[in-house]
Amino acid sequence: MTLPSSSPVWHPFTQHGLERSRPEVASASGAWLTLSDEQRLFDAISSWWVVTHGHCHPKITTAIEAQARNLDQVIFAGFTHGPAERVAAQLLSLVPDGLRHVFFSDSGSTSVEVALKMALGYWRNRGVARTRILALEHAYHGDTIGTMSAGARGVFNAAYEPLLFDVGRIPFPSAGRQQVALDALERACRSGDVAAFICEPLVLGAGGMLMYGADTLAELRRVCSAHGVLFIADEVMTGFGRTGQLLACDHARITPDILCLAKGLTGGALPLAATLCSPDIFAAHVSTDRAKMFFHSSSYTANPIACAAAAANLDIWIDEPVLARVAAISQIQSTALAGITGDSRFDNARQVGTIAAFDISGGRGGYLADIALPLREACLKRGVLARPLGATLYVMPPYCASKADLDFAYAAIVDAIDEVAA
Fold this sequence. Notes:
The chain is α/β, with parallel strands linked by helices. It has helices at residues 46-49, 58-68, 82-94, 108-125, 145-150, 178-189, 214-226, 248-252, 279-283, 304-319, 322-340, 372-381, 403-421, and strands at 2-3, 22-23, 25-29, 32-35, 40-43, 101-105, 132-136, 168-170, 194-199, 203-204, 210-211, 230-234, 258-261, 273-277, 346-352, 355-360, 384-385, 392-395. The chain is 36% helix and 17% strand. Helix 2 packs antiparallel against helix 10, helix 11 (322-340) runs parallel beside helix 13 (403-421) and helix 12 (372-381) packs across helix 13. It starts with a strand and ends with a helix.
């Protein structure tokens, strides 16, 4: 069933003047969605990059059901509960050494907003005048005011420019220009007023699946450390296996001062986010002066049901060979990309771990490229949920996807491109 344009619901990142109807999803299992008219769709984008082990994973859904019967919600200011304590302990056992504290929120945007506030609060509470934020060009960090400020200026936030604060831009370290980026970061950090540098490690997602190497990531961290600049790793998308390791930072063997997690934290079942930090950042907010506390919260901070889902997800990571499944998906992606490399219809085929991306030859227009909507519809008609970033297509499946699933997806995408191009 396709819902008519008369629906009162206002959808995200949707131009209702062009996208006048929306298929109704009735159920999901594994790597597949089922619409109300019983059409099945392969979820080639993990439902906006959140689903890791597969939709409706039985261990996660069982944990949600059990928690909902016991404790559904409680204020987290001044209280705690078992699921939150368990998730915090599990996370700290998995992430790099040096991260010791976990602050819960409810989305990728808020996890980054929390990180920026932590960084500024750290310097203010220490009495040091460092207030400037640095970020990579082409970055996307979310849709709240702070995260839009940290993201690249452009179509995503042009209407809201009066609300945004100035952020220093570091050139993207594309092939052959890594040193240009490092030199720019070095110069900016020498000013002495930089509070923090934030980046998406290895892959800039909404910026077009732009990729850079682990050696460069390690060098970015080294420059920040040399100048006492806090390093914020936005692993909202890259975390939980997407790049082939649990964290993208693991490839570079670095520990950020602040780490942002969301999307895959619950396996994609419920919204939950976490911002992890070093002991020094936490300590700067601990005082007998209440004015130095960390002023951030939401009504649903550390919701027990969401935390139960996260705990079940982390149990899967701890107890099962998830990285072996990730490696298998990565190999299938490599084989699929090899099949289109050299094809005149495609440019710049690229991959990090389970994330594969390629550009449509001759595609122009950035995120608003005209080809994106018809291509999305053509894929949908062929049974694949895809969401091109302008003329850039990517495949980022759940880890339960099979070779047959991905062969089907790539064949449908190529066929859809031929239809749209014709």
